[in-house]
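Quick one, T. Sequence first:
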Amino acid sequence: MEKFRFFGFSFVALMGMVFLFNFILHYPVRSEMSEDDRVMLGKKFGKKAVDIEEDINKAPHTYEEIVAQLNKIPRFRPPQNNHLTEEQVHKYYHVVNHCWERFRSYRRNYLKQIQGIGRGVAIFAQGSTLLGLCQIEGMGEVEMTEEEFDWVKQRMFEVALFAVSEKIKSGQVQAEEKDQLLMARDQLCRVLDFYKETDKIEYFPEKLDPSRIPRWNVELFLRVKNEFRYRKINFENIKFDSQDISRAAQDLPE
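Structure tokens:
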């Protein structure tokens, strides 16, 4: 259980912080809800809010159940050629999309109804738990282990940064694409740890090692780029010249 991590913290550590914070403030996460709690919360926020809070309260148990199922899957062994499959990209996108839907529901049916400082308390106390819950739920639905998910994300972001850098280098960037493209480049550098934070944040896309990126993955990116999503990374409205990118990828390994 300790090996499952989010932003450098283990799930156990995050859960400990959540429940310690809740113990001090007595709001808004409870280890369990009495019938009176359910009725009161239902009257105040509605049934969906009750369901959301109960899901968050049951997160440790849900996590353990899903991990037990994932442990039955044969251990993931990365291929030596670093080739991604389209199925892996689809699975990754399913997990990310599941988390988006979870957070949309949380924001719409729960968070928006909390006034004042309580909203900030709710985000602090529940945000990390909800992130861990939705991610493990998504992995369980597509039967993808943490090791495979992390490996797939790394390969996806490497090839995405390669394509983004080549597009910027080509100079063929439309005005409406520029901000989104630069935002994606910076976010990819963050995820791949190609940045330094001092007085200001500096990004170093040149640290990307092209020898780790097979042409196969470049072709896959060009086919299903809209599923290469993460936070502010969104290529739906960015056009990549397939011929230019493929030409730039000619020196990459197969």
